[in-house]
Amino acid sequence: MATSGSSTMGEYQNSAELTRADRLRARVREKKQIEAQLLPKKMTGPAFYLFLGLCLLKDGLDVLINITIIFSLLTIPVAILIEGLVFMYLVISGIKLNTRNLTLWGLNTLIESIPFLNILPMFTVTFLLTKHYANKEVKEKNKEILAAAQQASRLNRRRGR
Description:
mainly alpha
């Protein structure tokens, strides 16, 4: 009466036909299917740490700009290059240019343009806040996916009874 573990619980008319092992296999399969639907976190792995280091380097260059005029001739082009690379990384990572991110980066630009306030590591802080907000959105979407999957799983179990 019990079939192989490749069937889902929703296909059974009577849960008495299921062995305990079949029910466990079905739940493991359901869990794997749910995990496959979850969205991955953004801005992770070695690339994130590389670009975090670039952000710290850019903030360090901002300090050098304030110290001497000679360093400013060298550091301004490097800082612009680093900013461009970081923004390309954000786009490649799938960070949306929504109102929050545009406001965050706009405030960063404003603070960085004020002499002697650009000593603060605002570029790095803004980069980390962008990661935090992006992953917060992913976490909220994953909660919705899990809630929908749990509800569907409950319905399948009720049908199987």
